[in-house]
Amino acid sequence: MWLVPVGDLKPGLALGHPVLDAAGRVLLNAGVTLNERYLGILRERDYRAVFVRDPAAPIDAPPDEDLPFAVRVRVVDALRKAFESLERYIGQPRFATVQDMIAVCRSQGMQPLLGPRGPVADSVQAASALLQAVRGRTVLAGMPLCVPGEGGAYHGYVSTAVVAALLAERAGLHDSQVLGIAHGALLHNIGSVFLRHQVDHQSYERDLAVLGYEMLKHGGDSALLAAHCAFEQFEHIDGTGLPRGIRGSNHIERHRRVDQRGMLSLNGEICAVAKAYTDRIAGANGHAPRPAMRVREELAAYAGTRYNRAVVELLLRMLPPYPCGTEVTVSGGKHDGWSGVVDEVSPKSIDRPSIVLYRDATGAIVKPVEVDTARHAEIRLTVRAVGVRVFQRHARPDTATVDDAEGGKSRTSFS
Q: What was the pLDDT predicted at 360?
């Protein structure tokens, strides 16, 4: 399965992953064959790319979903209502300074929207639903969602909240802290309702952080945690970030003997790592989506300077380099040069997935063979690049497996 730009799609290709509409509902399901009508819809609604599968693949191996679609629809709807209610109140005025915007945040007219009975507070219930849906998850899907340009930002906020909640849970934080961090990740860009016409990138980030903090800080304990997620999303561990340029920690534990004032909060550091992951995997800010392996490498390179090293390590334990549905090529072992698709990732060996091979070293289609790479240290995997010939229609051969020498699951045995 490959992520292919919409402009490169041709009729006859089969979707490898569901395409969602702006509300989070399934527009086109996995397995649907694209035709001119569907391609027109994708272009009209500003989809950037979708997943397509190799028609010769013997199995459907869709990527995991980090969040059930029904829960995603509910959370996206709550976010949309919160943002749109604030945008309606603010209207279209251009503010001279960020202080003018802060004055609006503190105004009597804004407080009912930000208070405990307003639409922003409703996002706490959405965060709680999200948290219940993902609790205990140990492996991230590692694939971007196929969503339209309009409304796609809300899906990004939801995905950031999923990752932030899982990181906070794995860090051993209390339930109230996990909820506050999930809430903050959902609303980390709430200040953008003031900044729709601002173009200066660095000023935008600084103002976005300050305004988010001002909008969220008076909404109770959960909202205060959320406010710091917004305030510190562009800060760096080494003190080179925005807006305050303060330093952070490379640990989860906070030493009681050390004065933590003037340092980044753990919830802010967690949210920053979650946002960095989501932005890269989804391709935010005009960049193309990165594959999971590259995201792992980039986050590891920034660990200790830009991001909390301990939090990045937690993320890397959850992010498979070869997520389910990834097309791979084998190096080494009995099937050197063969290619296939990842069909299972185990939390116990996140970098050694189970794969189904269905093309030999010449590219010819063969009877599928299942291989558990965790049992074969000689095997190395690389992501298989998309090529024109894989989109040619082929008949699917019958699935064939080789019994594992140790019994149990059907796996390929190696001499």
A: 94
Average of per-residue pLDDT across 229-253: 94
ω into residue 93 within 30 of 0, thus cis? no
Q: What is the CA radius of gyration of the chain?
A: 23
Tokens for 5, please give them: 């730009």
Strands 380-383 and 365-372: unpaired
Classify burial at 255, counting beta carbons within 10 Å of its beta carbon; exposed 0-12, middle 13-18, buried 19 or more. exposed
Residue 169 has pLDDT above 90, yes or no: yes
pLDDT in tens, 182-195: 999 999 999 999 98
Count of CB atoms within 10 A of residue 61's CB? Answer: 23
Report the pLDDT averaged over residues 272-286.
Answer: 90
The closest of 50, 46, 44 to 10, measured between CA atoms, is 50
Residue 245: CB atoms within 10 A of its CB come to 11
Give the helix ranges, DSSP H, for 171-265: 175-186, 201-216, 221-231
- Report the SS3 class of residue 132: helix
Q: What is the pTM of this model?
A: 0.86
- Are 160 and 278 a contacting pair, CB within 8 Å? yes
* CA–CA separation, 213 and 201 (whole Å): 19
pLDDT score of 157? 95
pLDDT of amino acid 386: 56
In one letter, which amino acid is 282? A
Rounded distance between C-alpha atoms, residue 62 and residue 358, angstroms: 16
Identity at 74, one-letter amino acid code: R
Tokens of 406: 């140790």
Instruction: Measure the CA–CA gap between 158 and 81, rounded to whole angstroms.
Output: 14
